[in-house]
Structures are given as C-alpha cells and as structure tokens.
Amino acid sequence: MLSRQAMLAARTAATRRTTAATPALARGYAAAAAQEVKPPIALFGLDGTYATALYTAAVKTSTLDPTAKTLAALSALLSKDAKLGSILATPTLSSADKSAVVAELLKSTNSTSQPTVSHFLQTLAENNRLGLLGDISAKFSELIRAANGEVEMVVTSAQALDSKTLGRLETAIAKSAFVGQGKKLKVTNKVNPDILGGLVVEVGDRTIDLSVAAKVAKLNKLLTDSL
Predict the structure, then answer these.
(1) Which of 107, 115, 120 is CA-nearest to residue 77?
(2) Based on the domain organization, do 130 and 35 belong to the same domain?
(3) Are residues 102 and 12 in the same domain?
(4) How far apart are CA 165 and CA 173, in angstroms?
(5) 106 with 185, same domain?
(6) Total structural domains in the chain?
(7) Taking a C-beta distance cutoff of 8 angstroms, is the pair 53, 33 a contact?
(8) How far apart are CA 51 and CA 123, in angstroms?
(9) Residue 202 per-residue DSSP state
(10) Do 98 and 87 contact (CB within 8 A), yes or no?
(11) Could you list the pLDDT tens digit for every one of the 227 residues in the chain?
C-alpha cells in the first residue's frame, strides 16, 4: 500500500529530477513496440491496445517473464489499495506528481530495474492513462495465458464447489469444442449467492449459464410475454 509519507518522499525526489527524458522514454518504448511481433490473441479497447503494445515490447526486448511478474504485482497492489486507483485516475496530476507515482509504483513492486515496465508506465503517465493500469494488467494476463496455451474457465456457483466437482467439470470441458487441442485449462471457482443455484461456466469468451437465476428470469419472461 502506498503510504502518504512514501508518496510525499517520491514526489520530492521527482521534483528534483528533470522530466525532459520522458518523451525520449516514450519514443524508445514505441520503437520497440512497433517491431514485428505477433501477439497470441487479438484484444480490443484502449486497455487491450496498451496491453498488446506492452506484450510486443516485452517479447522484443526478451523481458516477457519479468514484465508479466511486475504487471501481476501491480494488479495485486491495485487490489489491496483502494485509494491507489483514484490517485492514478486523477486528471489534474502534474508532471512531477506523475513521475512520483510511477517511481513509487516501481519501488513498491521491486521493479526499479525493469526498463520495459518503467518506460511503459512513463508512457501511460505522459498520455494521462495511468487510470487504465488495472484494466491493462488484466488484458496483459490474457495475453500471457494465451501465449502459454492456457484457457481460463471461471465457474460461478452459489456455494464453493469441492475439488472433486471442479475436477469433473474440468475434465468434461477440456474434451469439448470450447477448448482447442493442446490447450490447458486454468479453473477458478467464484461464489455468487445471487445465482441461487446451478452454475455459470465461462470459458474464454463463451458463457454457459445453467443458473437457477437464469431459469427463473426465463420463466418470468415467458409468463410476461403470454399476458
């Protein structure tokens, strides 16, 4: 979590440094990202564009693994510190503030020696896009899973499922057309009492809704349409 003291210290240090190097960092990052590297999947939206650019730069500079670890650490940091997201999304941050935030992010994730991530964060700061960091991290994780041949399966249930049930679901889905040949499933169980019962299974970009809530909604619609 970013303490107030740490933020103030980082801001003071950043104020003493010139920000003239930022455009050069951005140009250097953009040049690396522009090299011909084919991402494993196509992503859309501004967050997807930035995530793809970072993936491309990391592959070209042979820093994909450390970059992935740093993005995962940044995502965890954002999840733990509710105020951090608001700070990053503040549109009125000065150049010194942005540099201070970037420096503290790198320090908090032990990533000060990671030039690819450092240049990327500087680019986000320069473009006033630090507020997208959480979404970009999520999209970057999608790219890493795709590159590793992983397909994410999220099983939502009203109550936590035991390992035996999850194992049976994994075996069944792994043999289906939802998962390509040679792919590996990464299974996550989410609990949402609002579905009342049954399951909602998400595999990649496909959703199988077998929840009681969905059946009730369908029944209500049939009753309403018949009136």
Answers:
(1) 107
(2) yes
(3) yes
(4) 12
(5) no
(6) 2
(7) yes
(8) 12
(9) E
(10) no
(11) 555 554 544 444 444 433 333 344 444 444 544 457 888 888 889 999 999 999 999 999 999 999 999 999 999 998 888 788 888 888 888 889 889 989 999 998 888 888 999 999 999 999 999 999 999 999 999 899 888 888 788 899 999 999 898 888 888 888 777 776 667 778 889 999 998 898 998 887 788 888 888 888 887 888 787 76
Residue 102: count of CB within 10 angstroms of its CB: 24
Q: Indicate whether 79 and 33 sit together in one domain.
A: yes
Does one domain contain both 138 and 106? yes
Asked if residue 178 and residue 99 are part of one domain, the reply reads no
Contacts of 169 (CB under 8 A, 6+ apart): 153, 155, 161, 187, 199, 201
Last residue of a domain, one of 116, 145, 174: 145
Distances (CA, A) of 109 to 183, 199, 219: 31, 36, 50
Q: Specify the pLDDT at position 25.
A: 43
Characterize 137-171 residue by residue with b for buried, 16 or more Cβ atoms within 10 angstroms of its Cβ, and e for exposed: bebbbbbbbbeeeebebebbbbeebeeeebeebbe
CA pair distance 39, 143, nearest whole angstrom: 7
CATH number at residue 201: 3.40.30
d(CA 121, CA 50): 11
